UniProtKB/TrEMBL annotation:
Residue spans crossing the bilayer: 12-31
One BP annotation, GO: protein O-linked glycosylation
Pathway: Protein modification; protein glycosylation
Record's keyword annotation contains Disulfide bond: yes
Subcellular localization, as worded in the UniProt entry: Golgi apparatus membrane
GO molecular function (one): carbohydrate binding
This protein's name: Polypeptide N-acetylgalactosaminyltransferase
Upper taxonomic lineage: Eukaryota, Metazoa, Ecdysozoa, Arthropoda, Hexapoda
Catalytic activity, EC: 2.4.1.-
Gene3D superfamilies the UniProt entry points to: 2.80.10.50, Spore Coat Polysaccharide Biosynthesis Protein SpsA, Chain A
Species, as recorded: Hermetia illucens
Enzymatic class: transferase
Keyword Manganese: yes
The Ricin B lectin domain, residue ranges: 425-524
């Protein structure tokens, strides 16, 4: 209703100032001002914009890229151009959502941040136009476009005449992660909302997001991402009851909410919590975003940043919710239309390692056991993360696993304990060079202090070697199905099954097998994580 009235008013204004139109057109083309300018609205909402004006933008060519080829964008640009700046799409919300009258007080504004790199002009324009047309403008602070150094600077420059639009252009390609940070740094809105450059926001998308976000300053919200087919550009509703998550490879994963959970919620239109943002489209308070340090700017080009943000957000006091009444369409492409300077595999692996090293505590070894190649990649230590953890009193990763993401099972179900193995105040470790097992000062940094105890009794290192006894000397050898490699837990002791000897810290930091002695502290070992079986 409100939007209808608004349209009426602008149409009226349009007729009223018809005589001065040529002058207004002129000033807009030269783009004299990026300040708020009511004239922009007149032009933007005029029928000629949708009929012809946008075509001048879409069909401007440059020689560096083929603007008609499917491969240039990994979706059908021809169909996208035919659709133009705007189209009607099906309202995919649960019909009950339409009846909700959101009373959004206090008023808050949103800065929409769209990063793009050589995007199809029609798709980029449509993303912006859908935001302008389907958002109550009193909630919209601005639309910040971050051009990540696309080949053709006019991709972004030509859009500055649109209302609310501001443009930043990177002098070199920074990747979407640093670009989003840059966009956030210039934002004024109370909330930041990140969008890809090939989206179409649907009817009533923003109000339900704001409604939830207003409940608490650290609730970050995510819409349901509908899919736009890359071949046909058909808009399709997605199943709304999916949460964002990931596996130990740190690959994003959708997880359906359980039947029980749906029953408890009673109402399908209520929001639900999720371990991670449903991909990279979410809204977060600007203040809280910067308290969290923004996205980790060491992450390169593409990948992982939404997981990094999700994990630290939860661990440091936030909550993520999926809001089923909010819908945004996104073109899910089957391949990357752009290059990765270091290759996509390596880039993603390095980003993942950085996240695991920063946030996974001793669980990082599960990541390494899935991705052994990551061990050899060097990533700079994340000094900021320790300050952040202290300042915000962030919880350990084990809390996240137990409380937020119980669906993330340990990769190998057949173990009973893992992590650091402590005897007194020291930790079991092995010398990488001499391969002797001894006690060392405990350190999370040290990969050689991580052990796994399997249900069959094998006690192995993170490099996959198994502990055995030779006489009473502890040795490391290839794991095999041998009784000699079996250790049983008995009252805090680790008993070698074949000989009945106990693991013992006899002298200084040496570790050997000795006769088991009741209550001997030097024979008591505890794992940092003991699983209940
Ligand atoms: C998914 C997320 C995306 C981001 C990414 C992982 C959705 C709908 N998409 O991406 O937001 O979280 O996973 O990082 O949630 N871009 C640049 N510079 C570059 C590369 C890309 O600005 O160097 C832009 C690109 O034009 C696009 C956005 O970043 O607008 C996301 O890239 P994408 O669409 O290729 O990624 P997608 O959909 O696989
Ligand atoms: Mn995308």
């Amino acid at each position: 209703m409100k939007r209808f009235l608004w349209k009426k008013t602008t149409t009226f204004l349009f007729i009223l100032i018809g005589g001065t139109l040529p002058l207004i057109y002129y000033t807009q083309f030269v783009g004299v001002s990026s300040e708020f300018d009511r004239n922009k609205f007149t032009r933007f909402f005029s029928p000629s914009f949708y009929k012809d004006d946008f075509r001048q933008y879409i069909y401007r060519t440059d020689r560096k890229i083929d603007r008609r080829a499917f491969e240039t964008y990994s979706f059908s640009v021809e169909i996208s151009n035919q659709i133009g700046a705007y189209r009607l799409i099906s309202d995919t919300r649960d019909p009950k959502c339409r009846d909700i009258d959101y009373v959004l007080k206090p008023r808050r504004t949103v800065s929409v941040i769209i990063t793009f790199y050589n995007e199809a002009r029609s798709a980029l324009l449509r993303t912006i136009v859908t935001v302008l047309k389907r958002t109550p403008l009193e909630y919209l602070e601005e639309i910040i476009l971050v051009d990540d150094c696309s080949y053709d600077a006019s991709d972004g420059e030509d859009l500055k005449f649109l209302p609310y639009v501001k443009l930043i252009r990177n002098q070199r390609r920074e990747g979407l992660i640093r670009s989003r940070n840059k966009g956030a740094e210039t934002a004024y809105g109370t909330y930041l909302l990140f969008l890809d450059s090939h989206c179409e926001v649907n009817e009533g998308w923003l109000e339900p997001l704001l409604d939830r976000a207003l409940k608490h300053p650290t609730i970050a919200v995510s819409p349901v991402i509908d899919s736009i087919d890359p071949d046909t550009l058909k808009y399709k509703a997605s199943y709304p009851f999916l949460k964002g998550g990931f596996d130990w490879n740190l690959r994003f994963k959708w997880i359906p909410i359980s039947f029980e959970e749906r029953k408890v919620r009673q109402e399908d239109i209520l929001s639900f919590t999720a371990p991670a943002f449903s991909a990279g489209t979410f809204m977060i308070s600007r203040k809280w975003f910067f308290q969290l340090g923004g996205f980790d700017s060491s992450l390169e080009i593409w990948g992982g940043e939404s997981l990094e943000m999700s994990i630290k957000h939860w661990l440091c006091g936030g909550q993520i919710e999926v809001v089923p009444c909010s819908r945004i369409g996104h073109v899910f492409r089957k391949s990357y239309p752009y290059s990765f300077p270091d290759g996509v595999y390596f880039t993603y692996l390095r980003n993942s390692k950085r996240i695991a090293e920063s946030w996974f505590d001793e669980y990082k070894h599960f990541f390494y056991s899935m991705k052994p190649a990551a061990r050899d990649i060097s990533v700079e230590p994340n000094d900021k993360v320790n300050i952040l953890k202290k300042d915000l009193q962030c919880r350990p990763f084990s809390w996240y696993l137990a409380t937020v993401f119980s669906e993330l099972k340990l990769p190998n179900e057949d173990h009973i304990a893992f992590g650091q193995v402590k005897c007194g105040t020291k930790c079991l470790g092995f010398g990488v060079k001499d391969q002797t097992v001894k006690l060392q000062d405990c350190s999370f940094e040290d990969n050689s202090q991580w052990f796994l105890h399997s249900t069959t009794g094998k006690l192995s290192t993170n490099t996959g070697a198994c502990l055995n006894l030779n006489g009473n000397q502890v040795i490391l050898e290839y794991c095999k199905d041998s009784k000699n490699q079996m250790w049983i837990r008995r009252g805090g002791k680790l008993v070698h099954e074949a000989t009945g000897l106990c693991l013992d810290n006899t002298l200084l930091d040496a570790i050997v097998g000795t006769e088991c002695r009741p209550g001997a502290p030097s024979q008591l070992f505890s794992f940092s994580v003991e699983l209940q079986k």
